[in-house]
Amino acid sequence: FFFFFFFFFKQKTAYEIMPSLVGSEMCIRDRYLCPRLIRKKLRIDAAKLLPKLPDASELKPFPTFEALKYVGHKAKIAGISVDPEGTYLASGDAQGKVIVWHAYTGKIVREYSLDAAVHDLQWNSNRNIQLIGVATEGDNVIFINPCLSPFERSKATDVLLSKYSAASRETEPEEMENEEDEPKKKKAQPKATWHYYSDEDTDYTLKNWRLSVKLAVIPQKLVWHSKGDYFATVASHTQTAKQVLVHCLSKSKSLAILGKFKGVVEAVEFHPTEPSFFVATRTSVLLYNLQKQSLIKKFLSGSKWISSLSIHPKGDNFIVGTYDNKVIWFDRDMGAKPYKSLKYSDKAIKNVQFHRKYPLFASASSDGSVYVFHGMVYDDLLQNALIVPLKLLQGKKVAEEAGIVNCIFHPKQPWIFSIGVDNEIRLWS
């Protein structure tokens, strides 16, 4: 066998044998004469693909270090708020304790004990009104006049509330007459019950309580309008029409603008200059017209669960924080989809906040950190917003999923306040 195999290949050359094995003589010639192509490999520096951003040192001022601690709460802090002048800081906890601090020194100025746990509290955004709205577990929104300096502002607030109380009493007899004229008509249940405390209610006036709004649902969040006459409440644990109510302080009336809305509302915000209202559901943000009570636009976040919402002072941009570790920036002029989606944290984003004066925004994460960004919105409509990461403010590291619960900016200074699971408030300056 070996002899036959050797003799067979001995008689023929390789050129004669290969066509029968490969297929044809043309195939061999094509393979032999085909030149080898040299493919040039593109070598691209990854650093050159990144956009050119300004240095963080050129974008000062912004908070960089922990300057002060506010220690006084023994339970979980539910909310914090700074007065429009930036002098006082109010906070409330799960035991119903409300503390008013001096923001610059950390000294306790006022202290109140409520009958129910505090879910949220917000200072009235009007500088001429000294009023704190507190959303509690007992279906009530309690308004407190802390009677702080300047005392002329505190007296003016009491005079203003007394006028509102007198106006609300005048409308009650008219409503009773209409009910007698139409006895067959079914009476609609009021959205809220307003009660002003007079000088005779010494048990409440000595506590500086001025007004109580009784709701049919438990309020989880409270938001003021920039002018201080309107405020909104959110009840996240219900899907009725009363889960979002807009209240008018001067008229002592409440209105459910969503009607028969199906879904869970997570956060709401008033537009700073227009009669518009932002409603954040779990997956989208709805923009309503308050005058017509109609839906204007729907923004799709692309996330599974929205946690918080903040509107830029100019009103054309807003950001949302999500439980799937994202901060999403929307531009109203760019359509319903996000302009930028930022994912830099390993845990959920609990709260986002824009600064009223400086081009800054921040987010509070469950990993115990506060992320500060530079967010410049230009007047030129052809130029997109500039987003630059500035500083990571590392608070107390925790193993749980709570971390930093909330963060808010100082209204006049580039400072930020944060609260965490350690029942302490920190000022970053």
Q: How would you characterize this protein structure?
A:
By secondary structure, the chain is of the alpha+beta class. Helices cover 16% and strands 38% of the residues. It has helices at 2-11, 14-22, 25-33, 46-49, 151-181, 202-205; strands spanning 66-71, 77-82, 88-93, 97-102, 108-113, 118-123, 132-136, 140-144, 192-196, 209-215, 221-224, 230-234, 244-248, 253-255, 265-270, 276-281, 284-289, 294-300, 306-311, 317-322, 327-331, 340-342, 349-354, 360-365, 369-376, 386-394, 404-409, 416-420, 424-428. The strands form seven sheets. The protein has a five-stranded antiparallel beta sheet, covered by helices on one side. A hairpin with an 8-residue loop joins strand 6 (118-123) and strand 7 (132-136). The longest helix has 31 residues, at 151-181. The chain is globular and about 100 Å long. The model is unreliable at 1-7 and 173-187 (pLDDT under 50).
The end-to-end span amounts to 94 Å
Largest sheet: 5 strands, antiparallel
Total E-strand runs: 29
Global morphology: globular
Q: Which class of secondary structure composition applies to the elements?
A: alpha+beta
Q: Give the C-alpha Rg.
A: 32 Å
Number of helices: 6
Fraction of residues in H or I helices: 10-25%
Q: What's the overall average pLDDT, rounded?
A: 86
Strand content: 35-45%
Q: Spans with pLDDT under 50 lasting ≥5 residues?
A: 1-7, 173-187
- Spatial sequence of strands, sheet with the most strands: 6-7-8-10-9
Layout of helices and strands, plus pairs?
Layout: H1 2-11, H2 14-22, H3 25-33, H4 46-49, E1 66-71, E2 77-82, E3 88-93, E4 97-102, E5 108-113, E6 118-123, E7 132-136, E8 140-144, H5 151-181, E9 192-196, H6 202-205, E10 209-215, E11 221-224, E12 230-234, E13 244-248, E14 253-255, E15 265-270, E16 276-281, E17 284-289, E18 294-300, E19 306-311, E20 317-322, E21 327-331, E22 340-342, E23 349-354, E24 360-365, E25 369-376, E26 386-394, E27 404-409, E28 416-420, E29 424-428
Antiparallel strand pairs: 1-29, 2-3, 3-4, 4-5, 6-7, 7-8, 8-10, 9-10, 11-12, 12-13, 13-14, 15-16, 16-17, 17-18, 19-20, 20-21, 21-22, 23-24, 24-25, 25-26, 27-28, 28-29
